[in-house]
Amino acid sequence: MWKILSFIMLFMLMLYGCLDKEIIDDVNLVMVIGYDVGEGNKIKGTIVAPEYKKEQPVDSKVMTVESDLSRDLISDLQKESPAPLVYGKLQFALYSEDVAKQGIEKYVDSLERDASVGSKVILAVCKGEAKNLLEGKYGQQGTATYFRNLVEHNMHRENLPIINLHTYLRNFRMKGKDPSLPLLEKKNDHVKITGLALFQKDKMVGEIENDQLFYFKLLSDRYVKGIHTITIDDGNKASIESIRSKRRSNIDEKNPFHLTIELEIEGYLREYSEGTVRPEILKKAEKAFEKEIVKNSMEMIDMFKEKNIDPVGLGEEILSHARGLRKVKNWRDIYSKMEVDVHADVKITETGVVQ
């Protein structure tokens, strides 16, 4: 028994001795990478690596090269770096709008094939050059932390859907759904989320603006939190904060191409523009909000069908519930025939501090 244990321990020590040892002070940790269209058929890649200095804000080292292939970018950057570039802490991948319109499959593929890159890397599209955004100075925590925090808190606390490398690949490969990514833009000395980039397969073909993100997340996710101002039929305005939402879908047994989406939203009234909030005012606010949700959701679905894209995954729902349709080679033929209805049920359970 002791001989076996001794052999195992010796074997493990030998394996440990074979591992590459990398001391954090001796390497550059690539935490953000950006892709732009280069000259000719080249790819322009920009990486950001943090530089830590004692009792000083985190500085960001930015490097840019142009290469023939996305897999060559890091190799070419290594030739210009005084310390080895290490991919293992990558947090953010940014694609210019021009790159996204041409297709990002080859760039995402290079990330997926790298075993050191985690599945929670956030992907995003930017207006203008990615290089321009990554060269900015954003606070004391460094560029990588700034970009990740910007997108993550809007995913978990606001109306941006949860999106990372894992969810992108799942939606890209799923039969009956298309990917979508956050859309960013530089505004003076900061970066702003301007909406959602919509893809058909791996090519960007459209976008959703910020004021429509709430309705998109209602259609695609189970939970929405955000503040929305509505106009009641008497002309007064009410501010409603959504605190909980549910989504159910039903397929007509007689017509498998007919899908009904039922949305339940629970929230409370934060502000009302005209005096005391009476019960009849709450009822009017609920009905006005329901009408707005149905109108905007249906307009969005019509836009998706017009562009022949399905970022919500309505086609996948039809394919998974209707017998025999999984054998259809081109699910977009089914998607074009779909009839979708949206029903909304809003309950305002509290009136906040106004009462």
Q: How would you summarize the topology of this molecule?
A:
Layout: H1 2-18, E1 28-29, E2 32-37, E3 43-51, E4 59-67, H2 72-78, E5 85-86, E6 92-96, H3 97-102, H4 105-112, E7 122-126, H5 130-134, H6 143-156, H7 165-173, E8 180-187, E9 190-200, E10 203-209, H8 213-220, E11 226-231, E12 237-251, E13 258-272, H9 279-307, H10 314-321, H11 331-337, E14 339-350
Parallel strand pairs: 1-5, 2-6, 6-7, 7-8, 13-14
Antiparallel strand pairs: 2-3, 3-4, 8-9, 9-10, 11-12, 12-13
Structure in words:
This protein is of the alpha/beta class and 355 residues long. The chain contains eleven helices and 14 strands. The protein has helices at 2-18, 72-78, 97-102, 105-112, 130-134, 143-156, 165-173, 213-220, 279-307, 314-321, 331-337, and strands at 28-29, 32-37, 43-51, 59-67, 85-86, 92-96, 122-126, 180-187, 190-200, 203-209, 226-231, 237-251, 258-272, 339-350. Mean pLDDT is 84; it is low at 16-24.
